[in-house]
Q: What sequence folds into this?
């Protein structure tokens, strides 16, 4: 899957997750764990996009 599509899907999922918080009673620990997991995955994908852009230009 192209990274831009993965990033878009993850962004949409994070937005949906935030909406869900206001409608479902999660424990604070569950909210924190879930939020941090999504943030970590999002940051990883963004870093890979940057890495691929640099390498596509022939730079190392």
A:
């Amino acid at each position: 899957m192209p990274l831009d599509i993965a990033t878009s899907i993850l962004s949409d999922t994070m937005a949906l997750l935030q909406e869900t918080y206001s409608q479902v009673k999660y424990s604070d620990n569950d909210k924190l764990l879930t939020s941090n997991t999504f943030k970590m995955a999002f940051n990883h994908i963004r870093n890979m996009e940057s890495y691929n852009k640099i390498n596509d230009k022939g730079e190392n």
Observations:
- DSSP finds two helices and no strands in the chain.
- The helical segments are 3-21, 28-56.
